[in-house]
Amino acid sequence: MSAQAPSAVILIRAARFVPNAATAADNAFQREVPEGQSQAATSTRAVAEMDGVAQALRDAGVTVHVFDDQDHTRPDSVFPNNWLSTHAGGKIAVYPMYASNRRHERRADVLELLKSHYRVQTIVDYSGLEPDGIFLEGTGAMVLDHVSRVAYAARSHRADTHVLERFCTDFGYEPMAFDAVDSASVPVYHTNVMACIGTRVAMIALEMIPDVARRAEVRERLAVTGRTIVELTEQQIRDFAGNAVELRGRMPDGRSRPLMAMSARARGSLRPDQVTTIEESCEIVAVDIPTIELAGGSVRCMIAGVHLDRRPTDDLEPTPAVEAIDENPHSADGQDLVRAVDPS
């Protein structure tokens, strides 16, 4: 088993998909839908790509929880990692979102499934910081090293360092914040497009960290556990090579196997030597998702990993007791997200 690589994931199957106009200004990876392509055709292609990701992960032995989304007002709901993360010890975090039309992506039914199928002790909801203009968009804004307990974050208005420090205090991580920009000096909007941390390998565009001293600190911190570092170029980042995630699959004979999930575009951007290095520790699972990538995110953005202990099938308790740390007990649409459950 690996603390870094979950064996179960949550995916959102959005019936209506479209690149979000509210995020286009600061997401340099976002693209327009091809001219002449209808909304219906775009959504149909995106749903097929979502299904392809789910099937590829299931075929590799990953447990996949899929939630349908029929709400046509949530253009980015396919990216749940921005509002939710789960952690060993039964802890869940719910995050404040920058774009107002993304805030009602937070779903009580997702949390209910986690409480029913996994051992959940604490839910911490930071979304009450949104009215103050303070945001931390989950494992998009942070790339978490669950082994060394470090939270890497490229500073941006989607990754406020004050809430980063609060998260690190609550969840037991060391904050490692840095500035990251592209060749046009445009800040990287989400850390997880430029970095991926696995158990034995890390992929990162160190060249996008302009502060040479800070770049060296990040490199050293990533390598301290013996990880091999695969340095990515800015062009590979634009092809989403950094937007990958390590998972734990299961072979037909029951043995576990480490996987690196990424898009076909990302896989195609890697040099042969980089592929060899990654495959020394992980099997690459690549899925073609060109329509979804129009929205400026790729496979890693689609996946909310489940780092929780599974509840035994013979455990008759329907819902675990949950300690609600009440940063904000309601979602943006008034739906209860966090509530204490009386086990008696």
Automatic annotation (TrEMBL):
SUPFAM superfamilies referenced in this protein's UniProt entry, alphabetically: Pentein
Residue ranges, annotated region (Disordered): 311-344
Family matches, as InterPro entries: Amdntrnsf_FN0238
Protein name per its UniProtKB record: Amidinotransferase
Species this protein is from: Nocardioides psychrotolerans
Lineage of the species this protein comes from: Bacteria, Bacillati, Actinomycetota, Actinomycetes, Propionibacteriales
